[in-house]
Amino acid sequence: MIGMISRNLKVFFKDKTSVFFSLLAVFITVGLYLLFLGDIWVSNFSGYEGVRYMMDSWIMAGILAITSVTTTMGAYGTMIDDKTKKIDKDFTVSPFSAQKRTLAYIISAVIIGIIMSLVTLILAEIYIVINGGELMSFTALIKVLGLIVLSTTTNSALVFFIVSFFSTNSSFGTASTVIGTLIGFLTGVYLPIGQLPETVQYIIKVFPPSHSASLFRRVMMADPIAVTFAGAPAEYLTTFYDQMGITISFGSTTLPAWANILVLIGSAVIFYCLALINISRKKV
Q1: How far apart are CA 282 and CA 274, in angstroms?
Q2: What number of CA atoms fall less than 13 Å from residue 185's CA on the CB side?
Q3: Which of 59, 45, 57 is nearest to 228 (CA)?
Q4: 51 against 68, higher pLDDT
Q5: What is the dihedral sign for C-alpha 5, 6, 8, 9?
Q6: Which domain holds residue 66?
């Protein structure tokens, strides 16, 4: 299995186009933030200290959530390509079972998602520091690394379930384009959740990657929020957290961090099971 995983990693990183398009949504988000959104959001909090640091942390936390979706989507492209080129037929004559091949694709996608998320984290921290912010503390860094693993595992399951319905490069490419286009909205990155209609807000709140974004924001924005809103009333902070998607609330109930984590773990189990059932059904 190690050989299969290694092969999948080499195939993905060798194709520079696949790597680029797996990060396209990230590039679009950064571009929009640099050109338009950043100045608009900072101006909304004029007069507060460290606003740029806070909003840079907000957007970078969202980008980390996006990265774990788009890069695992790109990683599963190897599986679709193997089907299209009938390469998977060659594997059937080997002692390597179909279950192990599927597991190898999943592990490869998770590894690729983690690697690309770590690269994104490094670039995000560099960007924040260049703009006058500070490097996150060691404790925050450990939490973010743990969230990267959890987020990537969960989002890989969601993407795997979606990919299980496709068997051609054209259908997979269309799905990748649609997901890459919508993911910024579905995680409340292009626009804060509080600025969207209630129906759209509900869709975002039940979307697993949004819980990843919420957890990343909780950790990465803790220090800058402490500076920007020092002495602010608790009621104001609660409203700000809900409006910006730092916390996720249903009615008057705000989900604690452990509930977000349980949602991610539960989603990973459910979507992996659904994907495997779908794949097994097609083979019958």
Answers
A1: 12
A2: 11
A3: 45
A4: 68
A5: positive
A6: 2-283
